[in-house]
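Table S2 (continued). Query chain:
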Amino acid sequence: MKQIAENVWIKGYPLTIFGTRHGRNVTVIRLTDGRLIIHSMAPFPAADIQGIHAIGEPAWLIESMLLHDTYAREGREIFPDIPFLGPPGFGSIVKFPVKPLYPAPEDWAGEVETLPIRGAPKLEEIAVLHIPSRTLILADLIFNFPAEEKGWDRFFHRHIAGFKRYPGMSRIFRMFVTDKVAFRESIDRIAEKDFDRVIVGHGSIIETDGKELLLRGLRDAGLY
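Corresponding output:
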């Protein structure tokens, strides 16, 4: 795990979608009492499991969007005895018990906040804010692939997925937004929060100016 801020770590894992290199970011947040929130699951190898335990005590697992079930079962099997949190309906998809990610557990108060993104009921993404480090953690709301990507990656992302520039929103996410008013109200609530860094589910971390770049990507998509 790579530490990117006090009490925040990240690890990228390979993930291929339609032959393109999407990657998948796993974020680990350590609360002040030493307990860990693991955001997004992956096929964790033994060394990474040991690395997570070296950081603190795993206490919660999170998937923050309905379509993020790819490695949910693997995460559940690796960490079988701690709560798994997700958006409404996630338990029906993965076929094991899932507790609500929103509202956030009281144990997180003052450190981690969850912010539902309304208007796309087939996605139900929930943004996660680590308050002390001013870090917003997302699933698929925006992606941030390399601007210099080439070949099939570039063709697929630009012409099929519909990214105009990075960070940006995919055409698929735009299609799932059925209530633009509710969506914009949700983004307004997120924009009111104090954050600068944005961790995307796929692609590179946005280390600075994350709020403005997030909003720019949503404006590019015609949704803000």
